[in-house]
Design brief:
The protein is an alpha/beta fold. The chain has ten helices and five strands. Helix 7 links the parallel strand 3 and strand 4.
Length: 235
């Protein structure tokens, strides 16, 4: 896939349009990228995601107003929806992912972006967004039995709920083969938090997540093959 030319300049320009609520200018800029042959998946991973991350950080630090934050997140959601309709769907990977996220607008949009990209990459995805109680999540994974439970969060306030959920799942031992994967701002800002709370894998971005899921699946398959081979030799 072609990279976005002059990515820093394009990102700066789109940021300006987003925080000032210039919808038409923002759409025209993004459409120009599509018309230049840039894949919508690349636009989402390399442009939308970093911008969303920056906007969330600046809002958290009171560097942009609530109005600018609302302009930007609503416009980004519109463009994420439009990009998703252009995605090329890959062959099924025969893996199910249950995705949940934190409750705020930024986390919901990040979760949606991740869900769209995972689905295009061949995964079967359910995405419930934020605000779902841990007992409901446990009940849902008990019924659907996903291969991966993916939890995206940007706020430090989400970490205790994620920890409690993972602890309960591990203690009950009902899903030994299910991967628990975490990602998002809080895990980027606190290195080692993923291991501390018992996650199997963490990712810093959608691109990182897609790559690491494939790498981890390959590694798991290799370990399974090696274990079975040794078992056959012993027998």
């Amino acid at each position: 896939m072609n990279a976005i030319p002059n990515i820093d300049r394009v990102s700066e320009q789109l940021f300006s349009y987003l925080v000032s609520g210039e919808r038409r200018a923002a759409r025209e800029l993004v459409n120009a990228l599509y018309n230049a042959g840039i894949a919508p998946e690349t636009v989402a991973k390399d442009l939308f995601w970093p911008l969303l991350d920056s906007i969330a950080m600046m809002y958290r630090k009171d560097q942009i107003t609530t109005l600018s934050h609302h302009y930007a997140t609503r416009m980004l959601r519109m463009m994420v929806d439009q990009a998703q309709a252009r995605y090329t769907t890959s062959e099924s990977r025969n893996r199910r992912i249950a995705l949940f996220c934190g409750p705020n607008e930024t986390e919901e949009l990040a979760g949606q972006m991740v869900a769209d990209l995972l689905e295009a990459d061949g995964y079967e995805v359910t995405f419930a967004g934020g605000g779902v109680a841990n007992d409901e999540i446990r009940e849902e994974i008990g019924q659907r039995e996903p291969d991966v439970l993916l939890l995206f969060a940007s706020s430090a306030k989400d970490a205790p709920f994620i920890r409690e959920l993972i602890d309960t799942i591990r203690e009950n031992g009902g899903h030994p083969d299910m991967q628990i994967v975490v990602g998002g701002g809080i895990f980027n800002r606190a290195p080692g938090l993923d291991e501390e709370i018992g996650a199997d894998l963490s990712a810093t971005s959608p691109r990182d997540l897609l790559e690491r899921l494939v790498e981890d699946r390959t590694a798991r398959n290799a370990r399974w093959t090696a274990t079975n081979s040794r078992a056959r030799r012993v027998a």
